[in-house]
Design brief:
- Helix content is 35%, strand content 22%.
- The chain has 14 helices and 20 strands.
- The strands form four sheets. Strands 7, 8, 9, 10, 11, 14, 15, 16 and 18 form a nine-stranded mixed β-sheet that branches. A six-stranded mixed β-sheet has the order 1-6-5-2-4-3, sandwiched between helices. A three-stranded mixed β-sheet has the order 12-13-17, with helices on one face.
- Strand 19 and strand 20 form a beta hairpin.
- Helix 6 runs parallel beside helix 9, helix 8 runs antiparallel to helix 10 and helix 9 runs parallel beside helix 14.
- It is elongated, with a radius of gyration of 23 Å.
Length: 464
Amino acid sequence: MLQFSKIINYDFSFVFLISPTSVLEGNFPDFVKKQYTDFQTSETKEDYLKIGKQYFFFVKEQSDLEKMRVSGFNIRQKLDRKETTLTILGNGESALAVAEGLALSNYQFLKYFKDAEDKRNHLEHIYLNGNMDTARISELNNIIKAVCWARDMVNEPTSFLTAEQLSKEIVAIGEASDFKVEILEKDEIEQLKMGGLLAVNKGSVQPPTFTILEYKPENAVNSKPVVLVGKGVVYDTGGLSLKPTAGSMDSMKSDMGGAACMAGTIYAAALNKLNVHLIGLIPATDNRPGGDAYAPGDIITMFDGTTVEVLNTDAEGRLILGDAIAYSNQYEPELIIDAATLTGAALVAAGTRVACMMSNASDTVNNSLLNAGNHVYERMVHLPLWDDYKEQIKSSVADLKNIGGRYAGTITAGKFLEHFAQYPFVHLDIAGPAFTESPENYKGLGGTGTGIRALSHFLAHYNK
């Protein structure tokens, strides 16, 4: 969608990114030139003209890139749905941020509307004219493509997106961007003795899947892979510990937001040909109370032999992730990162605007992740992963229990996952920002695709 062009077609609509010293060049009408100079000296941050069907947007250039992204969202709000092309006149990262916010705001999930065509945004091309790196335009284009794919996955209902269908969707993006995908079916999962994934799946009529992704460039900067693990609970009723409150299941199709994040991150990395060897692991199932559903009081044996006393079947994400994290140890990875919509406690602790990060990795890795999140405004708050918290998940009848009590629920969940990692480990609880209940600027309504932009920035600068 984002295209670089030195040629200006004056019949299209325009965005002028204006600094105190910028000068409008080109064959624009006098009324546009006057508006440009008047706006340049005013206190106004954003303004626009509409002449016939043509738009002229005026935006003050700012160093705060998030404000530039939100300006892109504001432009999308004012632009006619039928407009197909827009040209941004500006330079560098500020212009790219406006384009990024505009492109992400242009996303819609209309698959199930009868009148989808009437609702559709027709914007197909955003041209950028100015002083900027064309490689950055391509990079940003690919990341936006991956984010929109992840949003589609999170927005799909479980009537379509079963565990098997999620695996098929990952195969499709693997074929489109040249990374390998292997799907393990239920019989193979049983042979591996992944007791966490199999236990959560017992109440479902749909089989689980375990999907392995690998992107391995020839010039990888890491001799051992970075493993990305994503929680793929395609729908969560809570199991026999049925979610009790009104509306508490309404958005539970989003409980595979971690899987969408990690598959989308590898998709973006492959499209951008990053020089980082990545492996993705996606355990997937729904969590229902039917059939032979696992029950509170059950003791299950995980992939690595750890026994777990189940005290709440709604703490299922950590069970399927525990198997996947234990599986990742065979790769002797440099780093394991998981992303999961794991705990309601994360929303209590930090709200919907940030992810909660817990880590036993180096300060270099931690700071790089935090800085990446700040750069793209997918911010993270760093919570401790101290050994003190392990006391809360000790069981009297098994190695561990799957809940840690009333306090510090986000951290005890992270501590549970850390048990299965034999290599440096980062846990991202994205329960807050993964899904919006009401429209939120360029993040939209529903699935946000959170984490992909931050992890893409982190990986683009990995080991540098």
